[in-house]
Amino acid sequence: MFGTANVYGSQHYISVVEDKGEVDALVCTEWPLVVEAKAISFTDSGRRGAPRRVDTKVKEILGKALDQTDRALTYVLDEGSRSFAPNEGGKNVELLTAKISGGTAIIVTFERTDPLAFGGLDVAGNAKRPTWVVSLTDLLMVADILSSPAEFHHYARVRAGMIASTVTAAAEADLLGAYLSDRLRITNRANAEDSTRVLIGYSSEELNDFYTQRELGFERRKPRTDLPQEVTDALANTLKHPGWAECVDAVMSAEPSVWKKWKRFRRRHRRGGTFGLNDTVALVALPDGEPSLVCKDASIRLIIPASR
Question: Which of 139, 164, 189 is the last residue of a domain?
């Protein structure tokens, strides 16, 4: 999805504050994703919900992973470091760009732990940064549905941001279904208003139907965000450009009606033109050239050449 040149497994570093550290995977964009995987499984008592067993496993699965991702993001965001080594004691290589606007932690569990994914961070009690906890099977589902870097990256940041939200759900599929519908805007309202708990109900009917039909061998349209292909392609080619994450936010937050206007705009401006998404971000249609992202004077311009 992000390309082999932008994803690195098992990276090591030496932090000024925390000494040696390691992450399982690093996704190198203008807003990097730090990924930590845990493969601890539950015993029968844990599956029955025995309090002491659950508490122990939460600390093992989430506590250690949270410490690792927090150290890595501290190394990048607070210490300003950009270099990692493929093995302990190896030569450092600068993997990240000089200008970075943020960072997000993703903890992947091999065990399905939906209750822990949505409530475990509160139990662990040491989540210092936005963190998305997700099982491997759910991660594969999200990557299958949100197959462009911009879509997946935005969803990961929204999910990680729910650490400070009062919104929860019974399953990742319900959150993904709600995201396809309205980008989980309820999380913004819940954060801004009060401490009332919000439970997102069953929202995965379209996803369940798609995967059921596909397993049975029937053709079925994959649920998707319906963003224009040329826009997601341009964002996929500008991952490390300054302003990328903010541009992604503007694109992913746009109402469906905006993209109908964009299609009409492109038909009427075949020689080029500028289409504003908000006060800061605009799409620039050009008849030829290469995709690029221009961030200047508090404005961001995503250059989108005509489809070839």
Answer: 164
> Domain ends where: 164, 182, 215?
164
Burial string for 95-131 (b: 16+ CB within 10 Å, else e) reads: bbbeebeebbbbbbbebebbebbbebbeebeebebbb
Pair (150, 272) in one structural domain: no
Total of domains in the chain: 2
Domain identity same for 138 and 248: no
For residue 233, what are the domain limits? 229-305
Residue 165 token pair: 């939200």
- pLDDT tens over the chain, length 308 residues: 999 999 999 999 999 876 899 999 999 999 999 999 987 666 676 666 677 766 776 777 778 888 899 999 999 999 999 999 999 989 999 999 999 999 999 999 887 666 565 555 554 456 678 899 898 999 999 999 999 999 999 999 999 988 766 788 889 999 999 999 999 988 877 655 566 778 889 999 999 999 999 999 998 899 999 999 999 999 999 999 999 999 999 999 999 999 999 999 999 998 999 999 999 999 999 998 899 999 998 899 999 998 75
What is the Cα–Cα distance from 254 to 230, expressed in whole angstroms? 15
Please check whether residue 173 lies inside any domain of the structure: no
